[in-house]
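Structure catalogue
Derive tokens from sequence
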Amino acid sequence: MNDILNIGFIGAGSMAEAMIAGLLERQQLSNQNIYLTNHSNDERLNYFKETYGVTVTRNKQAIVANCDLIVLAMKPKDVVEGVQSIQPFINDKQFIVSLLAGVSTKSIQTLIGKEVAIVRAMPNTSASIGRSATAIAKGKFATDNHLKQSETLFRSIGTVTTVEEDDLHAVTGLSGSGPAYVYYLVEAMEAAAREIGLEKETAKDLILQTLIGSAEMLKHSSKSPSTLRKEVTSPGGTTEAGLKTLSTYRYQEAMIECIKEATARSKELGESINQATMIHKL
């Protein structure tokens, strides 16, 4: 990936795993070029070592020294402690990508206290199969080349869209959390299938292909979602009956509020981190 030779992950959660799995699956990097650490969970580190063959260590100085790119993948609430743990070893040539929901590049810059390149990204867990929808935005000291390197990195695990950093709160609420909304829908469809008497595996196959087919229609058709929906809905038919029930339960309104609430939470997390970094600076 251009001149990126080694990547170090600070944090060993689901997003780090999704990215590592995606990068290795698509042979973008060798497992020998990936380093990983976390706060204190040795069991989790051992899992990564055994599953993916990556280098795991508690020596954060070694990770920073050996890696061209550092990925901040800890929980947002742990960002102050996590960045402090590597701050002494970061130099002005370091390139940092943050996956932290709600946390601004300005807050990270304040914690680091050095003029380093930071690109903020919001992928989702579909990265593990190369199907993430990722949005990226560059911080104050990141160049167009850093942005290009980030695009290359995240394109290896899905699609990439460049946005203004302020828009990443909305991206978090929409696509960052989006897979969970879809999985929640599938849970409901599976429960309904049981109640109407379909076998579990039969229902699963039908549900998955319905989702895949619908997504492909949306991707390849020039028609709007509204038009495609109306084409499936015959007056007085079964689809109309189902949709009337969804309308009665305010399905669309619930989904809109769901995304708005997730977006608002991203902003709240960002504000709390901003306050924490200011306190740390003082």
User: Anything to note?
Assistant: The first helix runs from residue 14 to 25.
